[in-house]
Amino acid sequence: MLSEKIKPQVAGILMILVGIISFLSFFDKSGIAGRIFLDGFRFLIGKSIFLLPPLFLLGGISFLKKGRQKIYLPILLGIFLLTLGVSGIISTFQLLQIKDTVGGINQDQLVIEKEGGIIGYLITLPLEKFFGIEVTLIINLAVIVIGGLILIQFLLPEKEKITTEKEPSNSLIRKIFAPKFKIKEVSPQNEVSASFPEEKRKGPEIFTQPQISGIPLAKDLKIKTIEKNNKIAYQKPPLDLLEPDRGKPNSGDIKANSVIIKRTLQNFGILVEMSEINIGPTVTQYTLKPAEGIKLSRITALNNDLSLALAAHPIRIEAPIPGRPLVGIEVPNKIRAEVRLRNLISHQVFQNSPADLLLALGRDVAGSHVFADLARMPHLLVAGATGAGKTICLNNLILSLLYRNPPEILKFILVDPKRVEFPVYNQLPHLLTPVIFNVSQTVNALKWLIGEMERRFDVLSEAKARDIAAFNETREEKDQTMPYIVLIIDELADLMAARSREIEAGIVRIAQMARAVGIHLVVATQRPSVEVITGLIKANITSRITFQVASQVDSRTVLDMAGAEKLLGSGDMLYISSDISKPKRIQAAYTSEKEVRRVVNWIKKIEKPTEQTTEDLSESLEKTLTLTEETTESFFEGGDDPLFEEAKKVVIESKKASASLLQRRLRVGYARAARLIDMLEEKGIVGPGEGAKPREVYFGTEGGKE
Predict the structure, then answer these.
(1) Concatenated DSSP letters for 504-536?
(2) Annotated binding-site members
(3) Which residues contribute to the annotated binding site for ATP?
(4) CA 530/CA 535 separation, integer angstroms
(5) CA distance 56 to 18
(6) Euclidean distance between CA atoms 167 and 183, whole angstroms
(7) Reported confidence tier of residue 160, pLDDT bands at 50, 70, 90
(8) CATH T-level assignment (fold) for domain 176-184+248-332
(9) How far is it, in rounded angstroms, from Cα 541 to Cα 380?
(10) Could you report the per-residue pLDDT of 247-281, keeping only the tens digit for each?
(11) Does domain 206-244+349-606 have CATH number 3.40.50.300?
């Protein structure tokens, strides 16, 4: 028995052979067999025999190319109808000619001449008796058209289809009433050329671009050396250190799902018109337009009914889609595509963006790339259940910043109470201090950041610069630039359980004021409760990323709305910021620990030791972190401070008193410097504060009062 793969090839060869024999028989080059073939088919179809050689050749070639058994019958049927129609046309014209010449129909003469063959004779005479000559001619033309259309459909090469999904049903009624829509599918490899918007906005900005072919893949891009602020050259890590995207999403039978959605809504009295379908890496979004007078709450209330009808759980209804008069129904894909950081970083928007702190977030439901600028957020809260993808997201954010900024421009302070997530970044030249593990050092790091924030405000005020970007543009030497500082806390809940008052106060103080001086917070927690994410923290951190959470209550705690409990996990997230009215669903990129180690090790080998400016920052922070808890507590509770005498000496020698002065001279935080000023006032060394006026210093020397 022949296999299914061989049968079409054998049939194709046989058809080509018949076509060649029939062609050679016209010239009497195929022997007795050719003459028998010629006489037999000439008797059957008359002059239509001249159609057989090209038709058999084309049919055989089609069998060899397509190799599908189901096209045998259509091709043979097309050949039969085409020759039948041509024979009928020839017989009809012959019949018309005899009728005009003789004045009637001589059936014997028609049979003897048989220019249309016996088949044409048997078809034409009955049709002529019932319909007449004119209608017989039209019927034969219709048969020719039908046969030709069938052959054209199966002989011409197929065009690329928009989607690879099969038809939901062969029913003619189903096809007629099936909704018409446009399908957009994500391509895991193609990149897009896009320009970064020049207009700056106050809030964080999201950049999403459609997939367009023709742009070089990530593997084709070369390593570039870029300049930051036109002064610091930085060789970016090569993209080969990261893995490319893998796989392609499979959304199932999208046309059948579209019919099911429309029918289910109609069963509940909701008339809708299906619109486009967006196939993303994780979910497929079916968009629809409700009829006039339909309340959106009626559609959102049918979440469980749609989930039952589609046999998919969980589904999410976005009503309406921001900026569009449509409702989106997001159905999980049967097979998810793996989004990797490499294709996001190689994207033209990321490569050409002037933003120093651009973050690669992932891909949205339409497969478009999504980026956001941390400098415009300016702080970020990340929440989600265990295993939902928080730590991988933090790694993506860190790598995004490392691929854009040298150590002179960007510094990290990493806090990892779990002690297992961030140690890989130790000895990275971008770190101000080794990864912090305990609560006391975290409190001291927050206090140091507050002091550094106050110092930077004084520097910007003296330089008459509005923010850190304007200040760095005016610096002539690279060692005079002020680096960005990003504090990343991997687990806030553990810190809040131990020292909630100090942690909350420090985070709120930094979140309120630190944006202009280039200090930013990224805080993550796996327990999004009101005890961890307090009202003050939420009010000051408006940009939030939420991965899958356990309940709707947790979702409302982070986003102030439900939705995160219906996410799918494994990097499926909702992103919201101050300039977005509703959360945006994004599939975060996946970065393995091996990729992180490769990038970190490469930077360690390439980058030189940091300049003196950042070394001073590191030494100051290290000194603050080594402060004992007793000293810190006694200082903030009002006890004697060991730096009191030194502060007194600084104030008397400089003949002025301010918290910022003590911060710079004593390398302490703002809170401690302010407490020292209060103690000096209590001792009668300095006068009380009078608004914007400087305090008076009552001692000209250490020994006597003026």
Answers:
(1) HHHHHHHHHHGGGGTEEEEEEES---TTTS-HH
(2) 384-391
(3) 384-391
(4) 7
(5) 7
(6) 14
(7) very low
(8) Threonyl-tRNA Synthetase; Chain A, domain 2 (3.30.980)
(9) 6
(10) 788 888 888 999 999 999 999 999 999 988 988 89
(11) yes
